[in-house]
TrEMBL record:
Biological processes per GO annotation: aerobic respiration
UniProt entry tagged with the keyword Ribonucleoprotein: no
GO molecular function, one term: NADH dehydrogenase activity
Protein name: NADH-quinone oxidoreductase subunit H
UniProt cross-references to InterPro entries, sorted A to Z: NADH_UbQ_OxRdtase_su1/FPO
Topology of the protein relative to the lipid bilayer: Multi-pass membrane protein
A Gene Ontology term for the protein's cellular component: plasma membrane
Keyword Membrane (UniProt): yes
Family to which the UniProt record says this protein belongs: Belongs to the complex I subunit 1 family.
Compartments where found: Cell membrane; Membrane
Length: 92
């Protein structure tokens, strides 16, 4: 395989990935703005200019969230329970 074709394909893949990420970011922003309009509130305007940093703030909040497992609970069953329930629901 010629190296120029490989490099061309990798550049094309990178462009598609970046474009997909930009579309996902814009879709999230637009969805929040539309939801704010429908609910008659201001929307995500507290983090950065025009609320553009709100997804980063949400991601940081989610990343630093603590998992609380009850003391008397079976740890593995408590963690795997939602996945098992979803698997059973999708298989029916």
């Amino acid at each position: 395989m010629d190296w120029s074709i490989l490099i061309e394909k990798l550049i094309l893949i990178a462009i598609i990935v970046v474009a997909s990420l930009v579309v996902a970011l814009y879709s999230t922003y637009a969805e929040r703005k539309v939801a704010a309009f429908i609910q008659d509130r201001r929307g995500p305007n507290r983090a950065g200019p025009f609320g553009l940093l709100q997804p980063l703030a949400d991601g940081a909040k989610f990343f630093f969230k603590e998992d609380v497992i009850p003391f008397a609970a079976n740890k593995w069953l408590f963690i795997l329970g939602p996945a098992l329930a979803m698997t059973a629901a999708l298989m029916t």
